[in-house]
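Exam review. A common question shows you a sequence with its structure tokens and asks you to describe the fold in words. Practice with the pair below. Do the first one on your own.
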Amino acid sequence: MPDHVDPSGKINPPSELGYTGAELDNALLCEVAWEVCQQVGGIYTVIRSKTPCMVKAWGNRYCLVGPYNPQASPAEFEESTPAGPIGNAVKLLQKAGFEVHYGHWLITGRPRVVLLNPKSVYYRLHEIKYLLWEHHGISFPSYDPLVDEIVAFGFLVNEFFRALVSQRDSNQPIIGHFHEWMAGTAIPELRRDKMPVSIVFTTHATLLGRYLAMNDPWFYDHVPFINWHADAKRFNVEAQVLIERAAAHGAHVLTTVSEITGYECKHLLGRKPDVLTPNGLNIERFVALHEFQNLHRIYKAKINEFVMGHFFPSYSFDLDKTLYFFISGRYEYGNKGFNLAIESLARLNWRMKQMRLNRTVVFFIVTKRPFRSINPEVLRTRALMAELRENCRSIQNQVGERLFVSAAMGQWPRLDDLVDDYWRLRLRRNLHAWKTNRLPTIVTHDLVDDAKDEVLNQLRTCNLFNRPEDPVKVVYHPDFITSSDPLFGMDYDHFIRGCHMGIFPSYYEPWGYAPLEAIVMGIPAITSDTSGFGTYVLEHMPDHKEHGIVVLKRRNATFDTSANELTDEMLGFVQMERRDRIAMRNRTESSSEQFDWQNLSQYYRQAHEMGLQRTI
């Protein structure tokens, strides 16, 4: 590790480096990412949420570079006339026959964006692959659609920086910040050509680490002894891993998002990160000032409506004594901790029965799985509930009007006289159709292959079937929640606000946005010490539990130990009184400010300063 970086990854102030920072204030910064103007995974959230802060700090000296996807990009991108050195570089590329688009990303800050169409250079793909093999020893499979597109994109990024160098002021430094291996394919050739660009490479997760963690319950203990090349071949990702390692070693500065991922980088990429760049959020987007408690009440009422439609045809329970827990994220059964969460739910169910707690927990599992359609029975009960509500509203209006007339006449009417036979008969028919003897379904959709779905099979194994006597109920929703969702009818952010706690016991999670998104909306969350967010909280928030953030021990702990700890934490929350939960939401929301990009962007600035220092 360089002398000016301490073991925590923090860089000493620029003055101690013999560097004034003046060059940085004049530099051009181009951030390259595969998820610019197209959402594929978590990096989209990183880039998009950080952009307003970067635009504010860099102004017109900042731009984003990504691939042009004809299916996704036009929805988020507005083309405009190229201008400035970056625009001149775009014109140069267009003149050379490359398909390049210049404009603005339609998000807060409206950053300048350069989008390069990889498929426009597919006719040169064999040449591009050959040069990467000849110059850097990276061989590629004969046909892999994603790798082909990424390699072609890397070639265009190289050409963009070559054009930008020719168009910028000779005294103006250029910083290229590359995110993940999909954007890093240009780095080896940039270094070989001695391009005057300060290169920063951020790996948000090692590619090999993700594969290994899925298949090794003691992954973190085994990391120092892994043969990375043999395992890359075993998982058939040799080319991707070679690209990632070439980018990591070719960059002037290597960064990653957390200490736990830095540990992977050291052993799987062969280089220790120079700087840790933790992820944040644009907190301003979620700010509700003193309204967040009221918003919790409003959106909880919408979840109540779903719960009534889902459970009440079979049996009912007291919604005032019901808590809503949830887990969400990409479907990685072990890595995301779905397996641990379900096991802990089964234990919580048993313990609540033994203690005879007069509480109910409804646990939502929100992820994305292949499905044919929404379960017809779920849709049927939703339609019946809508009709029931409409009938009750009509009866309410009729009763109110007739009661008023009778009262004005000084009469005390009989209740039966206030409602017509028509509405009584219609309500009776509603109730007859509404009630059923079946148990509420544990999954809301018709999965394509439910017999092999790991989440569904574990729910069955744990006997979590939504029986009336079970205090813990489960709703497995294998689709992301959006405002167009016919079951919830609200955005995911609103769904979070209506819940009481987020459960995210990930085993492999380089950062983890899900608990952070919950916290900024005042919802307590459980994370783990094998997630980047969890390790950051342990280091920077000694009183994190008081602020509604629980960090579950998973590193050097057995599955059974972690399951018991998670059960204890959920049970403790269930036993809290309402006033205590309200106080905790206040403390949780107040702690979110430290995760604002306005505070965390300083680590990016340090990485950019170091990059210039190493190339001046």
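Now try the second one, then compare your answer with the model answer below.
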Amino acid sequence: MAITTTDYAQQRNWRRHPRVLKRTASAVTAAFAFVFVPAAQAYDWRFVPNVNLTETLTDNVGLTAGNSKEGDLVTQVSPGFTLSTDGPRIKARINYALQATLYATSDRGTRLSNQLNAGGTATLIRDMLYVDATAFASEQSISAFGPQSFNNVNDTGNRAKVHSYTISPYLFNRYGSFATSQVRFTHEAVGANSTLLSNTNTDRIQALVSSGPQYIRGNWGLQASTEKKRYSDIDSVDQSSISANAGYSIVPTIRLTATGGYEKNTYVTLGDKPQGKFYTAGFIWTPTSRTNLTVNAGRRYFGNTYFLAANHRARNTVFSLNYSEDITSTQGQFVTTAVIDTSSQLNLLYTPQIADPAARQQFVDLLIRQFGLAPALAVPVNSLTNRYFLQKSLQGSVAVSGAHSTVIGTLFDTRREAQSQQLTVPGLDDSTKQIGASAGWNLQLSPRSSALANISYARSTSLVTDLQTTYKIARIGMSTTFQPKLNGTLELRHTQQASGSFGGDIRENAITASVFAQF
């Protein structure tokens, strides 16, 4: 049964889910309780309040096709803050904003949305007990085949509020130079105000033993993991694995690697049971401290599997290319660390030019706002579905900084194949292929002003029905620093979308003026 526009329309009114803000606030409090409590007064916390005011004049606020489109003037007010510390025992960064969206001429009323991206690590007992925590809240597309909004301005019905958090304490021990061990417990929670995605709570225990520094040319390791994912309205799923790995350096720059083990999953399929032996073999090549390449190939219960990770950093260039194949889920993708993290990539790029970490992070945050970049580069739509799927994902990015400009390019090619049978009839988003690319250019015109241009393309294909949807967007704009803590941006945007299912072709033209102030 394909998802229809009626399904999207059920998500439009946030007031039907009055507990969303309360759940998100509880998630943030729980996730960071362990991070903030230990010796909090002993460290330098940097609290920077801010507010972002945006006015958007659009000729198609609902991203509808044909003559049904409607123009509007949309105001967004987003008060927020950044809280960070980089002490010897606590490292944390929280970006939060409460975004209010108001429509001038339509009856859409006012929408509220939490925007949160946070992560931290605390050392509770040095060389023994640590805890990691993350929290995330945002709006994102429900389906890759519905209208795709560049931000939260467009009221498309194809958006859902999503929140997640993780808490992960772990014990670490050293056994002289012979080995190290780690035992980690992780609790994850994911929720959305959409009937298409079940809320989940996952508990995971992992244990590993790794060789110590006395093993110079060779290394070894043993790992075991077990987890239970509990759904709000369907049966829970168990996953477990046990494995061993080994490596050997044939020369200082090349290390051969091998892994073998057994895994078991309990999600329901119509085919063979999702369990069995697995193995991989490959190599790691590190010709310099700035370049590394990891390649391996092997076999799991679903077939052959391959992995590639290539990273290179020069003085003015950062390059990444990654390919992976794994069994995952929508909920799992929301709590997975980004392969190509936007902020980390740009921080690496500008480390030679901006030595101070705080000043560099401020500059990176400004670039991310100007480019309109997501927290992760080169990612497809993480469509809402309760199925487990085999995801084969290729992602790449390159960032280049010149004397007066920055260029960022990204690409992705992701194929998802449904594996579980939690729904009787496949939906459009259960088995898909998504490809996309983008290029952005920021040109420094003066010490205070810069021009920007960005183009993006994405195509989604349903492997169930062969339905295709394409998405194109072009943006040009100007950014000015009025004062050290006051920035303004003016941008023109043109969007084209073509779909064979949801009303045909969509066109939008918009002009946006925004002011961002820190205090």
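Model answer, second protein: The first strand starts at residue 46 and ends at 58. The chain has five helices and 22 strands. Full marks require stating both points clearly.
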